[in-house]
Amino acid sequence: LEQRVGVYSLARFFPEFWGEPERPGREARTFETLISLYRQGRYAAGAEWIRALAPNAAAAKALPAAVAVHGARHLVAAGFPEDALALLPSGPPREAGLRGLHHEVGARAALARGDAETATVDLDLAERAYGEAHDLLGDSRVANLRALLAKRRGDAAAAEACFQQAIEAARAGGDAYHEAMAWMNLALLDYDQGRWSRCQQAYREAFAREQAVDQPQLSCKLRENWINLLLYLGKTEEAEARCYELLKISLHAGYREQQAAALNVLAQIARQRGELARQLALLEQALSILDPAQHPQWYFQCRHDRGLLQYEAQKYAAAQLDAEAALEIAERRSQPAWLAMARLLLGRVLRDRPRTDLDGAARALNLAHHAAWELGIRPLLWEIDWERGRLARRRQERERACNYFLSARRQLEALLPELPPALQQSYLRDRKLERIAEEIRAAAEDGKPATQLPAEDGPKKD
């Protein structure tokens, strides 16, 4: 089967499923095909397969429970949570392991829709069922999903504990794939927390286990995330080389999301080198292969990055379209970090476009600050206060502007020593602290002392 298959190719490669009466073994072969495709990471192929088997509600209802649940598993992994929920049997299966998977798929679909409450309920039921079935790999997946929920609500300690549980359960079950996935997700948490040494060690653990697994999806996701770390640490040449390696693997496997990830990083590298036309071309190439429903993460990132590029080129109408599209994805997926990024960009555009909307800019920037504060995203917090200070100056609110600029300076001074050396140099090269100092002096020109208002730590509401 190719990455995307239709009825014609299914009939060609699996003729026994088409135009023939029921016969013993058909259900088993269908089930085995879905299992095999999932283990290969070929979720889109599995989704097309199950759609061909159940093209309407009546056919879906007639499917055996095991086939329906595993088909729904493919659908949610391929980015179709609503279709997955529609395919799941109305009542959970009686067999404990399959019942656990039924609730796990429901939790994944709820997570994709941004419904944390339903996801938590389904994870509780999945954990109970996997416990009855003594399914250690199911336990590992549930712990991994609990960690992602904790991470989404900003509870890093709970997320770390759950990722460790996922690693231990996978190790006890003797499954390198599940263990590698948990190590990779722990590395991403360490990345978000600025724990660079721990992050690199977690990636080394993940790569060590990936070697024992023939799973292109894992190989692509692992390299995708590793490349972002390399870029952040300033290892640009190595990141670029890894991008082309990722492109080769993902093109061969037909993974459009990882192709877009590689193109996005190459666009970031082009930006660093001042090759803005190449950056725009790479972002548009990435967007051309993405579906916002199936690939929300990289669609969001590429729309955001293109919007930022357009904003800096003073193409405000185009920038606003991209910022609003990115914000729509973030709201639909209930991703606080994405919301902070999209609202920061939108606030800048509304403030600086020819027909300004200063009230709209204030709302966007204040909401961005609230989301970043809740998650503790320090690289965003100082920048949002910097932009709010610039907005306050536009509104001739001198004291408020000084307050924001002082807050931005304090946060950036605290952040700089904790950044990787290459990123520190980038901040110093861009004279970020000097630019804040210049704004403080300019805002204080009316004679009012810059320290009259204390710097605020919590989110502000204008």
Short description:
By secondary structure, the protein is mainly α. The protein contains 24 helices and no strands.
Topology:
Blueprint (H helix, E strand, L loop, with lengths): L6 H7 L12 H14 L3 H11 L3 H6 L2 H13 L3 H7 L8 H17 L3 H18 L2 H17 L3 H17 L3 H17 L3 H15 L5 H17 L3 H18 L2 H17 L3 H13 L7 H17 L3 H18 L2 H17 L5 H18 L2 H17 L3 H18 L5 H9 L2 H12 L19
Helix pairs in contact: 2-3, 2-5, 3-5, 5-6, 5-7, 6-7, 7-8, 7-9, 8-9, 9-10, 9-11, 10-11, 11-12, 11-13, 12-13, 13-14, 13-15, 14-15, 15-16, 15-17, 16-17, 17-18, 17-19, 18-19, 19-20, 19-21, 20-21, 21-22, 22-24
Task: Write a structural description.
The protein is mostly helical. Helices cover about 75% and strands about 0% of the residues. Helix 7 runs antiparallel to helix 8 (about 115-135) and helix 18 (about 315-335) runs antiparallel to helix 19. It is elongated, with a radius of gyration of 24 Å. It starts with 6 loop residues before the first helix and ends in a 19-residue tail after the last helix.
Features:
462 residues; disordered N terminus; elongated; 76% helix; mainly alpha
What do the pLDDT scores average to? 87
Give the overall form.
elongated
Contiguous uncertain segments of 5+ residues: 1-24, 449-462
- Tell me the Rg in angstroms: 24 Å
Strand content: under 5%
Order of helices and strands: HHHHHHHHHHHHHHHHHHHHHHHH
Largest sheet: none
What separation lies between the terminal Cα atoms? 57 Å
Count of discrete alpha- or pi-helical segments spanning 4 or more residues: 24
Number of DSSP strand runs: 0
Binned, the helix content reads over 70%
Structural class category: mainly alpha
